[in-house]
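Two entries, shown back to back:
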Amino acid sequence: MNTPKVLFMVPYPLGKAPSQRFRVELFEPYLKEAGIHYRIAPFMDDATWQHLYKQGSVFQKVWGIIKGYLKRLKTVLIDVHNYNYVFVHREAAPLGPPIFEWIVAKLWRKKMIFDYDDAIWIANTSSENSIAAKLKCFWKVKHIIKLSYKIAAGNDYLRNYALQYNNNAVLMPTCVDMERMHKGTKQHGNHKPVVGWTGSHSTLQYLDNIVSIIKELQDEIDFTFLVIADKNPELPLKDFQFAPWSAATEIQDLLRMDIGIMPLQADAWSEGKCGFKLIQYLSLAIPALASPVGVNNIIIQEGVNGHLCDNDADWKQYIKVLITDAQKRADMGKAGQAYMLQFYSTQSQYKTFLKLFS
């Protein structure tokens, strides 16, 4: 059989967006080792990305989107003929119906693989892009699934959605590379503990559920609350630290944490989340606390690598327990790291990824 040739159509510039970095870009070493010829074709360029989530910047956003459509048109009309597989991460283009996907799958009859890690059929856009939200065509997700040769879904909730429209849907969790990137191990000791959260501006809202609890606990115990994000939430806490997210310092910043948290709302959008915060924490031997929503119930092994917190009392109790017990943190962190290596690492999932192209 001939070696597969794969065209990856992705939304964002390389090295910028977590979903793309950890579901596509992280597997590049394995594609190379397998001798697979591939190309990654982003829709958006770096300049557009810089303005995307800022208030205003309308001209830059519009011009960036126009440039993206022109590039994508060339990709699907000309470049695509050099490949026999087309891997679409989330969508080929951010606005409008799935025209590019239709051209790839129906007109050119390429084997299209659709990959997604959020409940992207549900309307969920930021206030910075309220106009674009009206043009998103969230309904297109089911049609892209119908057009696809295979679907790679980040959790069972997403896979079950896909199975309504296409029987060839496989589970492929979001992973971390525990040899090349997430290879550190938190050293738990009797220093001043750090409770931490990492995410983006779009998920900062979930901190609203936990701030009052952190505030109460800081009146009782001496610990730091750390946020790693692309926007400073400026939380009104006694001891609050902010680290601007950077790919260069991501692992170093995460390793400042002794406990990682992931509060969520119990809704359909959260059901689609793939627990990536938890995967990052646990891969570095940082025990995790999370709301019992969706895949969190699978990633957190209750009492082994962390705790599920169903209410304010749970959050307060388990944060307090872990803050005051360094040995428990170390034991849970070790268990979590082993669990991630077995099920949520590229080392454990690369064969599933490569099998998409067979």
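entry 2 starts here
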Amino acid sequence: MGIKEKYEAPQKRYELPSYDALNQFFDLDTIEHDQYPLREVRRKITEKLQDIAKLLEDTLHPESTLTGIHEARAFTDHEKEAIYTVYGRVMVLERKGWQPYLDSTDESEALFITEVMKEWDELRPQLLNILKKLSASWNDDQEFKEDLRYLG
């Protein structure tokens, strides 16, 4: 029996989102250890949240890498404020993922999973818009190239 089958019983018990809905965004199919299905689902969710938080953090406060500097310039101060709001929401969720980590009860794991999926529906479109702008920034980089020539 795999993770999907082991998730079904707690899903029904705690009225959790479907496995397929979670798997679509959080890659549950890659879970190898499925003895504690809710714990493993929470871990996959927090991994994704950590990755997203890192991307947003690099956009808001770039390190001195070409990627960070270039992409940070793509956003206005107003847009960065909006990104910071999204970043804060992601961080709240990521930090809440530590509570079931320490509590280790199915109830706390289920509560976290439910809360993330409710927030995810609102966060996802905002994150997609940020990612589109990051990608598009590489299509119009003439000003950045001129700055590089000045530095070189």
